[in-house]
Amino acid sequence: MNEIILLSLVTLGWTISPFIRKYLVNNEYDLSHFIFWNTNIVLICATLYIFFTNNYNLNVFNWVTSLNTIEIILLIISGLTTFFAVISYTSLVEKLDITYIYPIVLLVPLTLSVIIGFLLKEKINFEKILAIIIIVIGMIILTYGQYKD
Questions:
Q1: Are residues 82 and 126 in the same domain?
Q2: Residue numbers of the domain that contains 131
Q3: Domain-ending residue, one of 80, 95, 110
Q4: Per-residue b/e over 52-71, b at no fewer than 16 CB within 10 Å?
Q5: Which of 30, 71, 110, 117 lies at a CB distance of 3.0 to 4.6 Å from 122, suitable for a disulfide?
Q6: pTM, rounded to two decimals
Q7: Claim to verify: residue 77 and residue 103 sit in the same structural domain
């Protein structure tokens, strides 16, 4: 599939989902029910994706048993951090404007990816650094504007 289509789908999903989440949580729906159903819908979609892309023949238990101790710990940490991030994000959406939360949430992975890129010796040229600086400045201005109001 074309990378531009995939990037568009990711961007669209990450942009629309918080607003839907905010709508549902702000309309007196119980947060725990939202998290339960949202997680189950994602699980069902992931299962159907694996089945229809012919990856259903993977033996999940053999894969897990082939991991070493560090890989199992990393898998658990990955799952736990995702879980706590979803709970925290949904709680924030309930209390704050998405236009305030979203830039901050997006700034952290951007900053970390640059740091990790340097550590892993990825090619980072002047244009990438300049683009990141412009994005960071834009997010600071946007966030400052929220405090000012």
A1: no
A2: 97-149
A3: 95
A4: eeeeeeeeeeeeeeeeeeee
A5: 117
A6: 0.60
A7: no
